[in-house]
């Protein structure tokens, strides 16, 4: 049998069961993520350990990306007596609002070692570009200056 000495962990576990348990009322739980820009794309990584790839849904509607995943509970049955149940199970959900500068039509998703990684390209029109400067000389002739 496993023993615990942290009384607050037990309180957290009970609160999780009340708010996200298997009762008739439950709400989606947020999933931890990292997001960063790498060159001409944004990368978003979600921690989803123990979630099967077929239990993950990705939807984009207008500029809202929704990630939904379900971690199924540990099987129980005859002869199985749960000693410790700290790993959350159920539905996990997260929504990201994508800016107008991101290409939601070309999002790539990969899942490896419990991490869902999304790559969201920046639209061509939103990438930094150099602007040519034109100047008029004293004879009022227009010439281009390399910037």
Automatic annotation (TrEMBL):
Q: Which Pfam families match?
A: HSP20
Q: Which SUPFAM superfamilies match?
A: HSP20-like chaperones
Gene3D superfamilies tied to this protein: 2.60.40.790
In this chain the SHSP domain maps to: 24-136
**Cross-referenced CDD domains, in alphabetical order?**
ACD_sHsps-like (cd06464)
Please give the family membership noted in the entry.
Answer: Belongs to the small heat shock protein (HSP20) family.
Q: What's the name of the protein? A: HSP20 family protein
Organism, per UniProt?
Umezawaea tangerina
């Amino acid at each position: 049998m496993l023993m615990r000495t942290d009384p607050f962990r037990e309180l957290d576990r009970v609160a999780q069961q009340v708010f996200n348990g298997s009762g008739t009322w439950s709400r989606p739980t947020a999933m931890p993520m990292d997001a960063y820009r790498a060159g001409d794309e944004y990368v978003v990584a979600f921690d989803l350990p123990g979630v099967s790839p077929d239990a993950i849904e990705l939807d984009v509607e207008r500029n809202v990306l929704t990630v939904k995943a379900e971690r199924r509970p540990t099987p129980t049955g005859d002869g199985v007596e749960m000693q410790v149940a700290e790993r959350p199970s159920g539905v996990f959900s997260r929504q990201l609002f994508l800016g107008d500068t991101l290409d939601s039509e070309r999002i790539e998703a990969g899942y490896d070692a419990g991490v869902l990684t999304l790559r969201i390209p920046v639209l061509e029109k939103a990438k930094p570009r150099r602007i040519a400067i034109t100047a008029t000389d004293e004879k009022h002739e227009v010439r281009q200056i390399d910037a």
